[in-house]
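SAMPLE LOG
Freezer: B-3
Tube label: C17
Construct: single chain, 86 aa
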Amino acid sequence: TGRVFWSCRTGYLSSCSASVIPSTSGDLIVTAAHCVYDTTTLAWQTNCNWFFVPAYKNGNAPYGKWPARQVAALNSWTRSNPDYNY
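STRUCTURE (predicted):
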């Protein structure tokens, strides 16, 4: 577990909790869909710099910062207008 951070056009740094989950590649992170999909504009968070910090606590990154190659959310959620209860 740790935190995923991103900074977009505004330069403001945002974050959400995140976890590594077992995958073939060994580098799949899961976080809340509203972190990668802007529910205000109903659009993907684009032109952003993303990175994951495993075991993040109080500003410490004991295992470094890992850049993201891709972000995604289920289409069924993004098309739900998005409904946080979905």
